[in-house]
Amino acid sequence: MNKFYFFLIFIISSSYCTYSQGIYFWDPDDQQTFYSGNHFAIKGAAVIGYVMGQAPYLYVSEFRASIDYGPEHVGGTGSFIVTQAGTHIVDGRAWAMDWLSGTSYQWYEVSGYLTVYVVDNDPPSTPQGLQISQSGSNHPILNWTLNSELDISHYEVWKKGGNEGGDWHLKTTTTSNSYEDPNESVVDGPYQANEGDAYYKIKAVDINNNYSQFSSQVDMRIALDPPQKIASNNSNKPNKYFLSQNFPNPFNPSTNISYQIKETGFVTLKIYDLLGRKVADLVNEVQENGQYSVMFNASELPTGVYIYSLRVNDFVQNQKMTLTK
Q1: Do residue 212 and residue 240 come from a single domain?
Q2: Whole-prediction pTM
Q3: Structure confidence by residue, pLDDT tens digits, 74-98
């Protein structure tokens, strides 16, 4: 059997809620308007207790208190059993007469807002309805259906591939049901070199740090960054051609390929399968002397061993890499 915990956040503008003539709810121990705790708790619920006081110059004949989750209570003290998390309206009123002014009996009323979390150790349900589309800024944008549980703290957005490469990693957290990835640009049309897929999935987290299962994943084709020239100075400029082993290797679905060239030339970096068929063009341009790095996304390729080949002027070097899915 799960153990239940109870946690409250009070949304109160002051330490007590005052009526127009000075009648108020109060807790004599901590001067909070509403209170609850484990010593009041029953399974799956929180108990909201109250004590009503009055100003010394008022004659009060009757107290009443109500909450939008439960019946009205009569009397100077009482409690409400709340079994649903959320923000509740707590109303109080008193039938009173101001004996200083001699005014007639009337109801004095006040309302306060209270956020109650009835928290358990059950994981949230798996987020549903995850979709991906192209935003107005040409970025991938995710949308999903908010969970029905009212104790959800936030959602985690996980990503793999794209220009960040690598395996699944936590991209961001959000309290909304939408996320736009500003680091990727969406492309369409026939598949081209320096393009790949970015994959996303989400999970829900409640305020007791329970995690849901991952949602289904979605993906979108994006433009990969061009080869990045690694900063160097005159003392460490390359004096030879060299093609490094990709990292990570094995990889899924993205890996980084680094190389260096000793003089300006026309550079090509191509990927082949073991039958010699070209499967990707990563570089096809004139580059200056220097060190370079390029990301290869193999999300469209099957598991297997591939050959990547660097050609600069009369220099050619090949390396093997392994894609595992």
Answers
A1: no
A2: 0.54
A3: 887 777 777 766 677 777 777 777 6
CATH of the domain at 244: 2.60.40.1930
Whether 264 and 280 have beta carbons less than 8 Å apart is answered as no
Tally DSSP H helices, then E strands, for the chain.
0, 24
Report how far residue 59's alpha carbon sits from residue 227's, in angstroms, rounded to the nearest whole number.
82
Structure tokens at 316: 């050619």
**Domain encompassing residue 261:** 228-323
Backbone Cα Rg of the chain = 32
d(CA 195, CA 254): 11
CA 222 – CA 140 distance, rounded (Å): 8
Q: What is the pLDDT of residues 301-310, one digit of tens each?
A: 899 999 999 9
Beta bridge partners of 187: none
Contacts of 238-247 with CB under 8 Å at 24 or more apart are: 238/262, 238/289, 238/290, 238/291, 241/310, 241/312, 241/315, 241/317, 242/317, 243/308, 243/310, 243/317, 243/318, 243/319, 244/319, 245/319, 245/321, 246/296, 246/308, 246/319, 246/321
